[in-house]
Structure formats: structure tokens, C-alpha cells
Amino acid sequence: MTCARELRGTAEALEAYRRGSGRVLAGGGVLTALGIALGAFWPGPEWRGQLIAWLVGTGVAAIGTGIGARAHTRRFRRVLGSGVWTAHRAVTVPPGVWSAEAVVLAGGPDGEELWPLRVVALRHRWAPHRPGRGAVMWWCGDPGTGGVLAPPGGGALFRAKPVRGATARRRIVARASAKGLAGPPVPPPMPPLPEGGPSAEPDGPGRRKERRRLLTGRWRWLVVVAAAVFAVNWNWVGAQDADPQIDLTVVSEEPDGSCVVRWRDPWSGADRSGPYRCDPGRGEGLVGVWETGFVVSYGPWKGELYGYDAAGELHGSQALDTVDSLALAASGGFLVGLVGGWATFWTRWHRRRRAAREAREAQGAGLRAPVSAPASPPVSLLKAPAAAPADHARFAAYAERQAVPQTRPPHPEADVREVPWWRVRSLRRWSGAQDVLMAGGAVLGLGVLALVAPADHTRVPGLVFLVITAGLFVRSVFRLLTSGLPSVRLLVRAATAPVPVVRRYALLYDPYGGAPVLVLFPDHGGDDDRPEAVLPLVSPGPAKRPWEGLPAEPTGTVELRGWLDRAHDGAPLVVAWHEGRALWPAEPYRETGSAGFAALVDRLAPPAERQAAEGS
């Protein structure tokens, strides 16, 4: 690997970032064009101006965001093409009164230099990748001018700039040192990463499943375009009833009934003239006779004349026929897009199921499931020394060093063995029930506001927000029914299993993201016992204090319940209990020799760290 951009995960993240910026630019352009078109062709009521202002303002803001994202993409490409990834210990420094959140890396040849950096990213993008306790981050660039920061694997890219001001840098470095960043200078070695990042194993009940979109590619855009055309056309359909009926004065005539008429424009009051088809059955001498007709009041046909003959056939402007044709075409495109998207989704779903079944059969036969070779060799930042025995004493010493002091008691949580699952705060959050309640409350509130709004210009904006919030509500309900409830049922079934198994534990934190992990040992044994399993946990606390709710002691004993259900790869689902509180798993129970066990153990207590722990 000659540069960081050649790593497969990094290349895919860079391409995804570029596509995302393109979608934002396209969406902004569509909104701006729609606002301009409505302003030009739609007379509309009083609130039309506010709707157009919102559309154009949102579109211009999206265009600016897309342009900034494209600039970030070019900067990422330049930095990642001129350097390689290096691994560093990382710690976050919370924001102060006058300062934003900072990330401090342990750099330099011996890891003794501390680099304070500011991450330039939206909060919702940065929060899932914020380094936790004992975490490691990848860095590419110059700490003096800036560069790119990423979690191990290079799957998410963030721009990072140096902290300005000597006083601010010294204060941030001091806070980072107090949090324990200046520990052993050598970061954990980077094992070869599987395709797709550091965790390419099948999803368990605590894994957030890969997002599967029903509408992808060309079908999604077909549905979007058809819906946009139908929405604009629907306004024109509604405006047909408001077409004014006017009196026409015949100026000249032809034997076939065609004539030239004059009328007064209903909007500007100016006199206008144009061709029209008079009634040929009225006889000759139509000049100066009054006729009646209609004037189109919408779209690009605004101001054109049309009328109906004695047989009821339309003549004059083709606005009505065009509107009917557009409605039919938009409805057909919408249906074609939905059917095509569903067929594509169904085909991909069957392919995924077949691949998963083949992988399980290969694993059951003792064979290794075939995987595609990566486009570039895996990253290897440091050469690991010879592995020392991974016994309980060394894991316990490392857990003592990573222990987080509990300054306040955790929030009490209901016991799922005594109450229904929806009364347990962690399970409500995990299942998505809280999102459903929040979205439902927002829909109800906006619906009431839209009904009691005193005027049209305030009622219509409320309806727009109501439609958007209703879409979010439907999405959250769909996630609750398809993924949240099935996962919660499995967790509750494991947590309420009848026979507990007692095991000793050492609480450590995964350097790939900082997630808590229980390393489990036999209950009756000594300091020379080897770990028999690992159980990654979901951080029970809030975002600012994710460790709240974890065991206060870095070592001790827990009760394990479960072994009733298994994940896709055959690993059992187990829930740990400590002092009457459930520790909900993020992944299945990984026993010795199972997939992912050795790699996770090596990340938690690498050889260099074991030697340092032994010396301490």
C-alpha cells in the first residue's frame, strides 16, 4: 500500500462521500428550480410566496452544503493520496464554554507527543465514531496543518484541523493527559481487516443491521421524478376550476368558424386579441357579436383561450389535455418505479439469503466460506511482538488501568424479569419504541396546529411539516416492526432463561470504537486461567457518560443467562447480569475458537500492552 487511498475501505468511504455530496447538490437544485417554477407559473393563494421562499431558501442552503462537501472530497483525495494511515491512541476532550470538542492523538516516534485537533463534521456523523476509553484512531496528514481522521478500518472520514492558540492547546493537552492518554506509547497492532471494515461478521441481535433500501438506483429517481411531476400537475388540476370565464368580441371570422376575438385580460386589465373557434352554426355576420370563453390561469399556458363547442369537445388551448396526459404519465411512472424497486429488492434479498445459507453450510462442514480477495493488501501499521500468554492476571491488570471511576450512581432501570419489556428504558431505546413515540407525538401536535391555524398562510406550512413528520413516523414504525421487536424478543428470552451460569469477568474497552467488552473466565480458577469467551456490550449510559450502568469494579463475577437462541453464524445469545442489572449484549457470545474471538482478544490486550501490564 503506497497511500491511504488505496485501502479498500477508505476508497469506498471516499466514493460514498462524493456520491452523498452529489445527491445534496441535486436535491438543492431541484428544490430551487421547483420554487422558481412555482413563482413563474402558479398564481396561487396568499401563502404561495412563503412556500416559494422556503423552497428556494432550502434549495440554496442545500447547494451551499453540497459545494462544501465537494470541497471536502477534493481535500480528502489530496491528503489520502499523499500519505499513509498511522494508528494513534486517541481521547476526546469535552467542549468548554468558549471551545468546541477536541480530539487529542498520541503521536511522535515514541508516542510522547500529543496532537490536539478539531474535527470538522456534523454531530450526527461524528457521534457514532467518537473514540471511547482506550480507543485508537487512524490519522493521515500533518498535525500542524490538518489531515484526515478515521476509525480503524478507514470506513468513515473526518476532516481534522489543529487547535488554534497556544493557551487552548496547552489546556486541551493537560486535560487529555489527565484522562490517561499518555500511557504506553505503542498503539495496539492493527490486524488484517476483513472486507468492509473491522467487523464483517454476521449481525447479531445487538448489531445495527445494514440498511436495506426498497428503492435503489434508477427506480428511486423514477419515483421521485414521477412524484414531483404529479405534485406540480395536481396544482394545475386544482387551478382549472378557477379559470375565469370572460366575454369575447368577434373581430373577424372565416367560413369554417375560426375567428379572431378581443377580450380584456382578467389580471392586468389590458385589451388582448387572438384566434378562437366560434360557433359555425350561428350563421354569418358574427363580427361584433359577443362570445364567451375561458382563460387558462396556470402553468406555461396562462392567458390562452379555450372553450367548448355544441358537442362538448374542447377547442383552443391544449392545457387540459396536457394536464390529463401528465397525470397519467406520472401515475404510470410511479407504479413502474415501485414495482421495479420491489422486484430489485426481492432479487437482492434472495441472493443474500442464498449466500448466507451457503456460508452456514460451509461453516458447518468445517470449511472456510469463500470470500472475495480485497482490491488492495490489508493495512499493517505495526509489527506485533511475540504474543505472551493471555491469562486472567494480565487481563485484570489491563482492566484496572482502563477503569472509569463512577462519580454518580447510575439511573435505576426496571428488571425485565419482573415487568414487561417496554418498561425497561434500555430496551425501549434499542427497539426504537422511543422514536415511534416521539414521531407520533410530533405528528399529533402538528396535526392539531394545522387544524386550528387561523389563516391559510400559517396552515399550509404546518401541513408541509406534518407530511414530513408523518413520513418519519411511518419509517420508525417500520423499523420497530421489522428489526426492533424481533431483536428485543430474543434478548428478553435470553435474559429470563431459568438457569444462570457464574463467570469471572474483566471489563475492557475495544480500541476500535471504545465499546465495553466483558472478557469471561471460569468461575473457580486462578490467575493463570485463559479467557473462555468474550461478550461485547451496549453502552448503557447517555452519550456524554456512556459508562454509566456498567460494573463499577473492573473485575468481578457476573451471571450469564441464555443459550436458547443463536445468531446467523451459530453463536449463542447470552445476557449478563451484575448486581441485579442486565448488561445487554451488542453481539453474540463469542467462545474460544469461534469466529472473531482471537482478533477481539488481541485488540483488547495486545502483546505490547500485556508486557506493560506485567511490568506494572
Kindly describe this structure.
41% of the residues lie in helices and 19% in strands. With 616 residues, it is an alpha+beta fold. β5 and β6 (158-162) form a beta hairpin. α5 runs antiparallel to α6 (319-364), α7 (392-402) packs across α12 (607-615) and α9 packs antiparallel against α10. The longest helix is centred in the middle third of the chain and has 46 residues, at 319-364. The protein is elongated, with a radius of gyration of 33 Å. Residues 182-214, 364-389 and 608-616 have low confidence and may be disordered.
Total DSSP helices: 12
Number of distinct beta strands: 19
The biggest beta sheet is recorded as: 7 strands, antiparallel
Which parts are unreliable, with pLDDT below 50 for 5 consecutive residues or more? 182-214, 364-389, 608-616
| Structural Rg | 33 Å
Structural class: alpha+beta
Strand order of the largest sheet: 18-17-16-13-14-15-19
**Overall pLDDT:** 76
Report how far apart the termini are.
37 Å
Assign an overall shape: elongated
Summarize the structure.
The strands form three sheets. Strands 18-17-16-13-14-15-19 form a seven-stranded antiparallel sheet. It is an alpha+beta fold. Helix content is 41%, strand content 19%.
